[in-house]
Write a structure and sequence with these properties.
The complex is a heterodimer of chains A (398) and B (298). In chain A, strand 9 and strand 10 form a beta hairpin. Chain A has a six-stranded mixed beta sheet, sandwiched between helices. In chain A, strands 2-1-4-5 form a four-stranded antiparallel beta sheet, with helices on both faces. Chain A has two domains: 191 residues, P-loop containing nucleotide triphosphate hydrolases (Rossmann fold), CATH 3.40.50; 113 residues, CBS-domain (Roll). Chain A contains 18 helices and 15 strands. In chain A, helix 7 packs across helix 8 and helix 15 packs antiparallel against helix 16. Chain A has 398 residues and is of the alpha/beta class. Chain B is an all-alpha fold. Chain B has a single domain, classed as MetI-like fold (Orthogonal Bundle). The longest helix of chain B is centred in the C-terminal third of the chain and has 35 residues. In chain B, 81% of the residues lie in helices and 0% in strands. The model of chain B has no long low-confidence stretch (mean pLDDT 88). Classes of the chains: A alpha/beta (398), B mainly alpha (298). At the A-B interface, helix 4, strand 6 and helix 6 of A face helix 10 and helix 11 of B.
Chain lengths: 398, 298
């Protein structure tokens, strides 16, 4: 699944009366402030290059005024660029005439807005069906479909209410249902959850993640909240003053910020919630493969520490301490490792969020074994690394 | 003339020059109306036929039928018993005081004028809302139409079309149309940008945006404009009676010239009653179409 669906190349946007004339100045690298002072033109976006893969949640992160909302509006051409290429599925969006552009918006992309953008004079179900109304789908069919999506987002029973009668969170669910109702494969979400209070926001994030697991849409998500970006994004692009300063996987951004600007951002992030076990775990060094107690003891002496993870062909089995092994060897009644020797330690999965494993890792005197879905040991998570990452003192470039 | 007096007296243009300008303009317009008056009058014939037909319909139908129809319309538009009963009482009183026929004439002309104003005004308002250039050209014209004394534009209309119903309707429409245009323009411009953007993002074309989003959301404002237009049309009825529009205006005019205070008062009150009925009904109807504004959560 690494097919590129949206490709933006050398995108520039200058706001003002004669943007074309200003382009040479922008390209010569003059600063945004100088250009504004000298010509009265505002540089909105500067040399944006990005690729969004199919099925990905691509998050564009930036503070207000960074041009993120401008950028997302270029994708469905609510705003026309001054220069640059926008390719969707290999098709140049810039070459579409008005009619084909409307068709394109109807079927390929749908959008969720910060302040919801619901039509106050239409009922909830009519709002959800709006995309289909525009397409000219007949009433019975579109209402049936809208009903389905309304149920999916958990708003059954609100069909005939007006948007103003719903709470903010409910209104945005309507917005989401409206976006999904057209079956467009690309979803543009412009600060979709920013206007909601924190509890509702995280609820909506959960819902989006859950929906995405089923639907595999390609989502371009705009936010000013790095926590949100890290939580949702498969890939994150950070925008500052109309320029992309860094692009990468969430943990890349978090652990290896490219510029001081990004670093300043990253500093305040709740890492425990943003990072998964996989990104901070160590490779499994304390691995014991022999089922023979004597040989296991020998193996254990080759590495640091007084315990190890016993692994056989069926995958991870349990933690064994040196003490117990030695005691068992002395007793000599049994030469093979058996279940009675295992310590009582919880295993954790590699995609668990760090926050959830903190209690376990603090309680346990051993590094926690990280075990994937197949039951194989993929790593170990010592208390010290958890503490290190959370205190933000991890060495750079490591 | 240009002696040292110019500091004290305004150096006005020569009287004979002024006279020449007036003569030239009046002459040209007279020439124009003499050669094209008939053709232009012909263009308005359908309007005249409709006016006459509608007036006859209202005047010749039995009074109880008219009252029943009006009360039914009021009830269906407002769903309010109180208002319907009030309207019933107003019309019964008007009839009892012998003003039934004139009231019907006035109603017919107001109805036609309002329809015309809406039919012409809303499209102009829409055009204005779409382009700042159109807005800045039309706005001063509307200002002129609203502030120019109504008698002044009665003159060319009468010169062109003579006296009668059609010139009356034209004068009333000129006077009453600005609010519809202004408020249609304003209402559309006030539609929430994000809602409109949402419509665009889902691929709505400009017709779908206009009829599906802009007009419905501008409707309360447009209704306020229509309401204003009706009120202004009613106010104009008395002036229009000077050029032969029959109705409640004529007795008022008669009572001014003959100093019949009571006659003037009665007919004036009948106009007020009509105004109140039109106002309440159009407002209540406008409100009822905005169901979504009710029971708003805080």
């Amino acid at each position: 699944m690494t097919e590129v669906l949206i490709k933006v190349e050398g995108l520039y946007k200058v706001f003002g009366k004669t943007p074309e004339k200003i382009m040479p100045m922008v390209k010569a690298g003059e600063s945004k402030d100088d250009i504004l002072a000298n010509t009265g033109h505002t540089v909105g976006l500067k040399d944006i290059n990005l690729q969004v893969e199919k099925g990905q949640i691509f998050v564009v992160m930036g503070l207000s005024g960074s041009g993120k909302s401008t950028l997302i509006r270029h994708l469905n051409r609510l705003i026309d660029p001054t220069e640059g290429k926008i390719l969707v599925d290999g098709e140049d969006v810039m070459k579409l005439d008005q009619k084909s552009l409307e068709e394109f918006r109807r079927h390929r992309m749908s959008m969720v807005f910060q302040r919801f953008g619901l039509m106050p004079h239409r009922t909830v179900i009519e709002n959800v069906a709006y995309g289909l109304t525009v397409q000219g789908v007949d009433k019975k069919e579109r209402l049936a479909k809208a009903q389905e999506w309304l149920e999916t987002v958990g708003l059954a029973g609100y069909e005939n209410q007006y948007p103003s009668q719903l709470s903010g969170g409910q209104q945005q669910r309507v917005g989401l249902a409206r976006a999904l109702c057209t079956d467009a494969d690309i979803l543009l979400m412009d600060e979709a959850f920013s206007a909601l209070d924190p509890l509702i926001r995280s609820e909506m994030q959960d819902q989006l993640i859950e929906l995405q697991e089923k639907l595999h849409k390609t989502i371009v998500f705009i936010t000013h909240d790095l926590d949100e970006a890290l939580r949702l994004g498969d890939r994150i692009a950070i925008l500052k003053d109309g320029e992309l300063v860094q692009q990468g996987a969430p943990e890349d951004i978090l652990l290896h910020p490219a510029t001081d600007y990004v670093e300043a951002f990253v500093k305040d992030v709740n890492r425990a919630r943003a990072l998964t076990v996989e990104t901070v775990m160590n490779p499994p060094a304390h691995r014991i493969t022999s089922s023979n107690i004597e040989k296991a003891l020998q193996q254990m002496r080759t590495f640091k520490g007084d315990y190890g993870y016993y692994v056989n062909d069926d995958g991870y089995q349990g933690i064994i301490t040196q003490k117990k092994l030695e005691a068992a060897a002395k007793a000599g009644s049994n030469t093979a490792i058996d279940e009675k020797l295992y310590e009582d330690v919880a295993t954790i999965s590699p995609d668990t969020v760090l926050e959830e494993v903190i209690p376990d890792s603090m309680e346990s005197r051993y590094a926690l074994p990280v075990v994937d879905d197949k039951g194989d040991l993929t790593g170990e998570l010592p208390r010290s690394s958890v503490a290190e990452v959370l205190s933000g003192e991890q060495e750079k470039g490591g | 003339m240009a002696d040292s007096n110019w500091l004290i007296e305004f150096p006005a243009m020569d009287r004979s020059d002024l006279l020449a300008i007036r003569k030239a303009l009046d002459g040209a317009y007279k020439e124009f109306s003499r050669s094209y008056g008939d053709i232009i009058e012909g263009l308005f014939d359908p309007l005249l036929y409709f006016l006459v037909w509608f007036e006859k319909l209202l005047v010749n139908s039995p009074w109880w039928l008219i009252i029943a129809i009006i009360c039914a319309i009021v009830y269906f538009a407002t769903r309010s018993w109180k208002l319907s009963v009030g309207v019933l009482a107003a019309f019964v009183l008007i009839g009892y005081f012998g003003m039934w026929e004139n009231t019907m004439r006035t109603m017919s002309i107001i109805f036609v004028c309002t329809l015309l104003s809406i039919a012409i005004g809303i499209p102009i308002g829409i055009l204005m809302s779409r382009s700042d250039r159109v807005q800045s050209t039309i706005t001063p014209m509307l200002d002129i139409m609203q502030t120019m004394p109504a008698f002044v534009y009665l003159i060319p209309v009468v010169m062109l079309l003579g006296i009668g119903k059609v010139p009356g309707v034209i004068a009333v429409v000129i006077y009453a149309i600005p609010p519809v245009i202004r408020l249609t323009n304003l209402g559309i411009r006030l539609v929430d940008e994000e809602v409109l953007e949402a419509a665009r993002a889902y691929g709505a074309n400009s017709t779908q945006r206009l009829f599906g989003v802009q007009l419905p959301l501008a409707l309360p404002t447009i209704m306020a404009g229509i309401n204003q237009t009706i009120m202004m049309a009613l106010a104009m009825v008395v002036i229009a009676s000077m050029i032969g529009v029959k109705g409640l205006g004529q007795p008022v005019l008669k009572s001014i010239t003959n100093q019949y205070f009571t006659l003037g008062l009665f007919n004036g009150l009948a106009i007020v009653a009509l105004a109140i009925v039109f106002d309440r009904v159009s407002q209540a109807y406008g409100k009822r179409t905005q169901k979504h504004l009710e029971s708003r959560q805080s």
